[in-house]
Structures are given as C-alpha cells and as structure tokens.
Amino acid sequence: MSSKFDKFQKRRLISSYFSVILSIFLVLFLLGILGLFIINSKKLSDDFKEEIAMTVFFKTEAKDTTFAAFEQQLKQSDFARTFVYVTKEQAAKEHTDVIGEDFITFLGANPLQDSFDIHLKADYVVNDSIAKIEKELRKNEMVEDIVYDKQLVNLVNDNIQKITMWILIASGFLALVAVLLINSSMRLSIHSNRFIIKTMQMVGATKSFIRSPFIWRSIRLGIIGAVLAILALLAVLYYVDTNYPGLEIIQDKPMIGAVLLAVLLVGILITWISTFIATQRFLNLRTDDLY
Questions:
Q1: 96 in the same domain as 71
Q2: DSSP code of 17?
Q3: Residues 276, 195: one domain?
Q4: What gap in Å lies between CA 175 and CA 172, rounded to an integer?
C-alpha cells in the first residue's frame, strides 16, 4: 500500500515539475519570439528607409570635375549609405526601356540631366535630417534640383512610430503575463509542500534554510524551461533563415545572442522571485491557515 502511495506521490511530483517547466517554456518562448521580432522589425524598417532615394540633378554646364568633387563629398559624408552617378544618356536609356519608345528621336534632344541617386542611412531618413542634408547639398552652385518623396518619408516615419508604440505595449503586456503565469505555476508547486515547510519551521529551521532547497529547485526548473525555449527559438531562426533567406534574420548575431541570454536570465530571475515570495507566504501563515 505504501509503495503504491509512494509511486502516486512520485508521479504527481513529476507531473507538477513537468507543468512548471512547460509553462516556463511556453512563456519564455513567446517572449523570445517577441524579442526577435523587435530587433528584426528595426532592421526591416531601416532597410525600407534606406530604399528611399534622394536624386540630385546637376545643371547642363556641370563638368566632370564637378561630379568628381561631389562624389568625394558623398564619400566623406556621414549620411550617404550608397550612391550612384547616372549620366543623362543612362537616364534616357532607362526611360526608353520603361516606356518602350525612344523619346529622344521624337523630341530631337535629350532633356534629362546628369544626376546622383543617393540612398541615405536609416537614421537620416527623417524630415529634419533630410532638410539639413538638402540645404547642405544645395550650396553647390552646379546643383539644379534635389528630389525625393517627402510624403513617403512622412508616412514611413509616422507608421514606424505607431508600430513601435504598439510593440512596446504588447511587450509590456506579455512580460506581465509571463510573470503572472510563471508565478502562478511556482506558487502551485510550493503549495503542495506547504505542510513540509511548516513542519520544518516548527522544529526550528530558519526561514533561509527552508527556502534554499525550494529556490534552487525552482531555478533548475527555470533553467530547463529557458534552455528548451532557447532551443525552440534557434529552430525557428534556422527555419526562417533557410526558407526566407532574403530576410537575413540571423545577420545581427550579437542582438540575437542578447535576446537568448535575456530569455535564460528571465527564466532564472522570475522563478527565483516567485519561489521566494511563495515560500515566504507559507512561512508567515499560521498552522490553521494551511488548511
């Protein structure tokens, strides 16, 4: 009879550990996915910003020395990510390919201008920065005009701000849910040992001595759940990178490493705090309140 009871208790203990590890794993996995989404959403938004081109048109009297000096200026600048010099002949050929008709023959001359297509770094694709860059470039007397899609810049920045705000709200909500779920699981685990805690206290054991084995056990469970979450996140990264290489999701290895490390630390920290609070609660209860 005693053997059956011991087996039952052992199965219940294993089931309790499994449920705790599963809840920790699921919560940390979701938090890790959110963290990876945040760092990659920043990269995706930067890539989109850097696709917006600023075109600088030059006057017809501009010489090769003017273009060489301007190219050198761009090379030394902080704002230019990439740039390309487009002659008016190249521009005419591109227009002909697009419209499917040689407009130069019809007009009798090439009305296009030599230009530079400049792709700015993401940090400079904001209204104030672009305005400063435009003002600086217009100091060149050979610059005829500077064109870029101002409405698109405004739209991109406004939407990124909105998306960032909602991501922060979702992050805060999920973090709160993570704490509550893991805390609830740890409290249920400690609740099943409340009589053992009170018995140890009644025979003179100190609170720190009673808490210690429960805390270390919870930390081990937290580490197991966190490691499983990290392995699942690595599997997701591998799958996405294999099937969607264009996203370049694993390019920012330091940030990915930081997210995975944060998952491990959160798993340890939340289980430690939750166990400490739960054991302290039962230590402060009267014996009659345990029932």
A1: yes
A2: H
A3: yes
A4: 5
